[in-house]
Structure formats: structure tokens, C-alpha cells
Design a protein that fits this description.
Chain A is α+β, with helices and mostly antiparallel strands and 550 residues long. Among the domains of chain A are: 159 residues, no CATH class; 90 residues, DNA-binding pseudobarrel domain (At1g16640 B3 domain, Beta Barrel); 73 residues, SH3 type barrels (Roll). The relative contact order of chain A is 0.13. The structure holds a DNA duplex (21 and 21 nucleotides).
Chain lengths: 550, 550
Amino acid sequence: MYLCNERLPSVGPSVGSMAQPAEKVEKRSLNSELWHACAGPLVLLPPVGSRVVYFPQGHTEQVAASMQKEVDAHIPNYPNLPSRLVCLLDNVTLHADIETDEVYAQMTLIPVPPTNEKDAHMSPDIEMRSRQPTEYFCKTLTASDTSTHGGFSIPRRAAEKVFPPLDYAQIPPAQELKARDLHDQEWHFRHIYRGQPRRHLLTTGWSVFVSAKRLQAGDAVLFTRDNKGQLQLGIRRQNRQQRVMPSSVLSSDSMHIGVLAAANYAAATSSRFTIFYNPRQSPSEFVIPVAKYQKAICHLQVSVGMRFRMVFETEESSVRRYMGTITGMGDLDPIRWPNSHWRSLKVGWDESTAGERKKRVSLWDIEPLTFPYVLCPQPLAFRAKRPRGGRDEETDSMLKKSSFWSGENSTDALGRLTFRTPSLDSWMRPKQPGLPMQENEHYRALEAAALEEIRTTSTAKNPMSRVQSSIPSSQMQFQPPHVLRQSSQHGELHMPEASGPLLQLSSSRPQSPFEVKVPSKIYLEPLFMEAVQLCVTLRYLHLGIHLIEI
Amino acid sequence: MYLCNERLPSVGPSVGSMAQPAEKVEKRSLNSELWHACAGPLVLLPPVGSRVVYFPQGHTEQVAASMQKEVDAHIPNYPNLPSRLVCLLDNVTLHADIETDEVYAQMTLIPVPPTNEKDAHMSPDIEMRSRQPTEYFCKTLTASDTSTHGGFSIPRRAAEKVFPPLDYAQIPPAQELKARDLHDQEWHFRHIYRGQPRRHLLTTGWSVFVSAKRLQAGDAVLFTRDNKGQLQLGIRRQNRQQRVMPSSVLSSDSMHIGVLAAANYAAATSSRFTIFYNPRQSPSEFVIPVAKYQKAICHLQVSVGMRFRMVFETEESSVRRYMGTITGMGDLDPIRWPNSHWRSLKVGWDESTAGERKKRVSLWDIEPLTFPYVLCPQPLAFRAKRPRGGRDEETDSMLKKSSFWSGENSTDALGRLTFRTPSLDSWMRPKQPGLPMQENEHYRALEAAALEEIRTTSTAKNPMSRVQSSIPSSQMQFQPPHVLRQSSQHGELHMPEASGPLLQLSSSRPQSPFEVKVPSKIYLEPLFMEAVQLCVTLRYLHLGIHLIEI
DNA sequence: CTGTTGGCGTCAAGCCGACAA
DNA sequence: TTGTCGGCTTGACGCCAACAG
């Protein structure tokens, strides 16, 4: 089993695949970018050295999921083990199952006494980002791809993006490809461009790979190219194909008790303990950055009927947001885990296809709906045609639907003047180099999503959503300032109730400017819009702020 | 994963493969005989409802072995958890890993307060026997067997014993065979008798099986035929091919703690807990019948230098005994498991090939060497030529070497009169039906082994063995009665010191006759031999007895 | 642009007896 | 008695373009 210690490649941007000098034999470096590509775009690992909140309850759920068995109610609890432990994330190593290539992360945690909230803001979740490689593609295998009858048909754009360019002077153009998997095993493929019409194919070597990895139609294969031009490939199996946990070692009960006992012992002695996080098998993350947790808990006022959105991964390895309504609040397991924040929200989903989505989520899983929320995206010209295989197709389609955005410094479709704000731009620009483009994409998604919510009359069948739709959308879009002033007199900024969550602002000290990260280009309406904008922006970043009454 | 509840087929002899009525869907019956055939001849599961001793320490060793990792010393112990728990064996289900066909048993244990020793004798280990099927064979695969070049060559006797007879009128004789594996999956093979010289082969269908099970040369395949003539087949993988435990679920530490915490909680609350026993992966059994345990602990006086023998499984699925000497005694882990009897004996082995054999064993693992020990085996005529693939080839060879045995009621090679003893025969005969033949084999092995030990001058390089060989073997075989009388005056029967172990007899009440199980035919020397014989026989059965001075 | 299918050449899977240990 | 090998046959693998959605 190959490992990659996340500590090592933490210096410099986009390292990860650099061949480590052989400091430790037996532990060769596992490609971090490839790992994250296999894990998917939603998997964000907290940085080593940061403080996290560990939920034994969630850990237990992962164990249950991996054994495809419910948590039995008769499992004893540890009276002194709280439902959450604040820990120092001492170490993270990335692994891949030797049999299935399933990715998982080993985390070493050291319980620490909880400190006051201010500490939480000292370690903001700026570094918490998915290290998705830029040059990659992911394709779900078709029946033809996996049959013994032929090879692998590569989408044109994908091949052109990540494979070395073919010499089209040859007839037919072809080359030998070598790619390494997570175990550093090398696979050889013949890459040829032929057929009528022309297409990219992997022929010789492909079937060996398929049978060795036991791939089936529905599984996905992904190729990445690192900064040295080396190809990597990984697999993402279809969910249904979850391996039945070999329970021939420990009984389900012992495993559950073991999780609790290990955490309990570590908490009692302030000693290290080790957990495995299996991102594609665990129902939810159970190691959360302290900052993310506290901001959700302390600064997010939720109530039944509140509308929210939440990110999910699509089949094509992109992300999209689903809308829902909070239908209830309360402990998931009031007897064994009272006063836990773990999945304390009961939710309903707008779309009828929501059968598979969770009925319960945690506070930090959701994005509250706020408005007005106006952040201009990158100019349209900046984006390529249609980024096939990209990770945010929803954003694209939304941006298409809303013929709303136009070029820089112009009036938009609703006649508002958009302009650049150099001051905000400069101090809010992230200091760290590397991947600003991806971050932009992230916030563009937020923008478009919020906008979509505003512009669309809810079509939900959930009666709760009628609360929102009772206000005409035209009125909802632009509340006059006095609505804001009404409630801001006692230091809180109440959004109109129809918009959903109360915007509860904390009384903690303002953030240092350099700790705040926002898109590099922000377009604001004058005055009122700017103030609200700032609040909302910071709000999305889960940052507390004093609001001085306007 | 298919299950077989050992409770169900517990009535009637050699059931096991009867199609259970579909009481519980999803849990189809797993063939018990096939399971035991795969587990090997040494695996004896205590009967459901009996009392057993559970060793958390041994359980922990199995967990460590399955993860190929040593038990870390930093694992905390539970102060209140004793090194052994007396439990009621509430349930046993047989399983087979869906991926590897690895057999394992799930046991449900209920800790019970330890009672006095007498109770132990109330549940003798008579029922503790391996349910090895009689009609079976096991072959280790050769390179030719597993290559893609051809089929599977079946040893002649094996094919004739378990396969349906071929119609030799056909040219060539051939038939279609169907056999089910532990998962009840059916496999089809073409069985043909051809070649020059003629031989039995499996051709069509064989390579499918090999690739599906991922068999390699060195792995073993076994076929059994149940009482309805249905064929079963199982596999036994070579040891080296231990699967790397997918540790992507729980950390090693959590697993170890889980084992201890589950046992600790069950002991504290007298509630059920579940363990998995993986006979081919666990270094030692860690669920021992109470009777076996207590007889070893209470009635076995061991000392450094003592000679013993111990059963091992050979490559060919037969058993053989290796000789060794106790070189030390003491706790394996004095800090965390003080006063544990778990593997408290340090041992050395006579043969130089003993590198793989354990350096530490438990008291109940060994058979002490005693003498004189004269039990006649079955008449030679009873046994077939050479039982290839049988389970006790060593016994056979020993019996061959000692041209010592002859027919019934005759003088043996040393001129002693052997005769039948009806009285002993009748009250010592086991009451339970089923497999008396196998039990006879078992004791025949003991006889032959003891005899061999007596007759052979030790060739051990271990200096300890010189103690024994200092007495001429002729003298050792027949000690005059006065030697016995010398030391029996204070209620103990001392064997001559040169023989090794002291024969410490317990002071517990004599056994009820019907609880004692000995070979059905016993030939005794008159008077003195009869008394010694009785002592030694009972001694081998780990039964305590009052000895009335002769 | 790409999933599926028919055509077809090639090579390894797999059946056979020879031979020898 | 049975493990391995060379000879030989055949059918599945796998490369190709056609075609269609």
C-alpha cells in the first residue's frame, strides 16, 4: 500500500507528484493530485497542523456503511466521550486499497482541550481546498469500453487536453502511452487516432487494464497529467459496487466499540489516535475544520422552513447544488448522543429525484440562501466554449440560462452598472499563489447559484417552500435599504424572513484583512449594495464581522 | 456471504449438507462438512451450549495476524478485563469470505461467572471433534494444474473415491461433473479418463474455476461427496498468500481496542459478544473448551526440560506430531496480561526444520509424553492399503515401522499376550453414535506416538533430551511394579523421572464411567499393566482420578 | 462526436498423447 | 502413477471501419 504524507508536499504550489527522495523505503509517495482526483471534487482534507472537530458518531456511520449494516442500538456508549472532540490534526497520509484502488485517508488526531472561539478564527480554512489537478479528465465507461470486443473511446477534448499531442503526419497518428496508477504501477496503452469519422482510441493494453482492475460499465476512469507531463490514471467505481466488507476479522459490534474506545482513550490521555476516512464510502465527513464547524454553529441561525442548498457530486464528477428546506431539527440519536450537532437537521429536497439524498444533514453541510447576492463572474470571454469534463457544468448552464452577465464594466441585463472595485479587489485577493482560477470557479458557482435561487420561483412540492414564494420574486430581488435598517438596530442584520436564514452576526473581533479570501474581481452596486455585498460575501465565507449600522 | 448455523445440523450423524427448509431467506445453509474440510483436520469447534474459555490475548493475536502487524505495546489494557473469560458458547455460524473463500466461524459468547472445577467435568469435550467428511480428497495444485495449457490431473485413488464411477465402456470414459462451493455456486467440469497411461483429468471448465478463484500453484483444491452423492469443492490457499487486510475501515489500534472493549463490556454486563475465529489465519485457537483448559491447567504438571509432542497439519492436509522440549515458562506479556496461561510455555523443537513452528505454546496445545503406554490399534487387516490423502499418514508409517502389532488375541512381537478386556471395553465405549472410526484413528495416533517415543532413542540435539535417553529403552519400556509403589505412598504416582513429566494426579472425584471415552478395543497386560494402562489412558484424556495404591 | 456493430485475422487457450520421473 | 512438454485445433480476443444517434 502506497502512502503519501500530506506534510511533505506542503511547500510550494502544485507539487504532489514530485518524486520524493527515497527517505523512507517501503513508503513511496502517492500522488496527491491523483488521489484527490479519484476522491472527487467535494473531498477537502483539513491541513495538517490545524484543529478539527472529530465526530465519533459520524465515524461510526462510516464503519456501518462500509459493512453495509446499520449501527446497532445496543452498542454501549462511553459516558465520558462527548459527541465531538476538538483535535489537532497531527498527520494525514493518503492511501489506496491494494485490491480495489479505493482511496482513503489515514488521519492521526490528538485531542486538545477546547479553547475559546477566537482561536478558531486563528486557523481559518483558507488552505482547505481540493487539490484537483487541472489537467485531467474522467470518463464513465460504456459497455463498449469494457467489452472484450474493442478498446476505449476517448472523448476528443479529453484526449487533446491531457494526452501528449499526436503526430498527425503519421497515418494513422498513434503513440505509446504510459500511465501510472495510485500504486505506482505503470500501464501501457496504444493511443491511436483513426476511424471514420476520426476519433481517439486506446487499443492495445486497454483490456489488460480493464480485467486487472475488474472494471465494469459504469465505473469511471480518469487520466491526469502532472506538471512534468507524466500521465497518471485512476479509477472511481460505481457506488453500487461497494465491496462487501470482509467482516472475517472483527465483528461489527467490536468495530463500533473500537471506534468509541479508541477515541475515548485518546481523549482521556490526550494521546494520538488514528482514524481512516473513506471519502467515497462515508455518508458524511466526520473530521471538520474547527473554523468551519464553529462558524456554522455559532453564526448560523437556522429554523424549520429555512431554505438552503447543498453541494453534491454528479455522475460525471462535476458538482451541482440541490435545493431543500429544513423540515425539522433535533438530535439524530437523543439517547446516546444528546446535544450533538451531527446531522441535526431534517431536510426535504425540492427535486423528486431526491430519493437517494440524505434526509438529515449537519449545519456545516448546507449553504444558507441569502440575497441579494451579486458577484459578477469572470467575463464570459474568459471561459472557453463548453468545458467538457469540467467540474462545474451546472455553473455553466446557469450562466447560460441567465442571459444576465456581460462584459467588464458595463450595464447588465437589468440595467445595473457593474464596475470594478479596486480597493476590495486588492485586499481581498488571496495571498497564496496557485489555483486562483479554481477558486474563482468556486465562487462563480456560488454567485450563479444564489442568483438562480432568487430569480426562479420555487417549484417545490414541499409546503415549506410556499413561505418563500409568497413574496413576488421581483420584490424579493431588491429589497429597499429600509428593510435592512429596521432590524439592524440591535446589532443584528435580519434578512427578510422570506429569504430564509437569519443573518446572525457574531460579536467577535473583525477579521484581519489578509485572512479573508474572496474572488479577485468583485463588481458592486454603489453604497447599499456594497454594504450588503460585503456582509453576504463574508457571510458565505463563514466569517464573523461587526456590522456598523448604516 | 452464506452462513450455516451449527445448531441446526446438530441432530443425527453426518448431516450438514441437508438442504435446510427456507426458514430464513438470505441465510442459506453452508455445508458444514465442506467447511471443516477447508478448515483442516486440526480445527475443532466447541459445541454450541458448552462452556469455553476465551482469551482476549489470543484474539488480539489473530487480529494482528490478519493485518500482518504486530500488536503495539501502547494499546491500553482494561484493568478489569481478565486474561481469560469463561463463557457460554451461545452460537456458532460458519462463514466463507465471498472474495477468497477463506473459512471462518462466527461465535457468540456470553460471559458466565466461573464455577468450581467440578462443573468443568460435567461438560466433557466428547463432542469436540472435527467433522471431516469421510469421502473427500485434497490435492495441492501443481504448475501444470494451474497453467492455461491444460486441465487438472486427478490422483487415481482420489477420483475413484469421491467421483461417480465412470462408464468404462465408453471410449474414452467421460462424464460431466457438477460441484458446489461454499457459496453454493455450482461449477461444471468435464471428467475424462484418457492418456497413455490412462489417468483422470478435469478439462473443460477447470480453467474457468482456476481463474475465478484466482488459484495458483501451491494452493489446494478439495472435493467431497456428501451422503446424497452430491459433489462439493473447496479451496485452501497457500499460507504465504494471506490477503493483506484492508485496513481502510479501522485502524489497527481501534481494532485491538475494540476486541478488548467488546469483551470487557460483555463481561461487565454479562451480555453477548461476537467474535470471528479464522482458523487458517489465527496463530492459535483462542476459544478453548473449559474442560480442555482446566484439565491442562489443573492436572498437567510441567517443568522446564519436559518433553512433549504437538500436532501440526502437513502440506497434504494430514496431521503429524513434532517433538519438542519445554525450555521456559512464564507470561508472554507480564505487564498487560500477568498470570495468563496464554502461550506460557517456551519451547524448542527437535527437528531442524522447526523454523516456522511457534516458540511459545499453551499448556493445552501439547501432549505430554508418558509411558509405558500400550494400546493396541485396530487389527491391521482393518486398514486399507495406503490411505492416500488420508489425515494421519504419520500414524500409518509409524505402525509400519513397528512390526509390532498383530491380529486379535495373539502374542505380539515382544511375546506379550494381548487380549480383549470386555469390561473396560463396554463401559468405556462412547455412547454417542457417529464417527467412531475417526475417534479410533485419533487414539491410534496417540498410541503409536507414545510407543514411538518409547522405542526410539532420542536423536534430538537439545541437551534436555539427554535426560530421557540416559535410561536404556529396554529398561524404560517395562518398569517393575515396585518403582511405582515407591512413590505412590503419598497419593501421587511418580513415573520414573527419566520419562519426563511428573504424573500428577488430581484429588477430584472419580469420573462417572459414561463420561470417559477410550478406544473401543483395548488389549492389556495382566494386573500391573492394567492398572498403569488405566492411569495412562485417563491421563491422556486429561481426566483426574484417585489412584488406590496397588 | 461517440456508442455500437459486423467483419475478420491472429494468437493463446486448451485438448491430446508422448515421455519420463 | 502423474507432472510436464510438444503438437495441433479452434474460438475468443481484439483491430478495423461502417453506421447511426
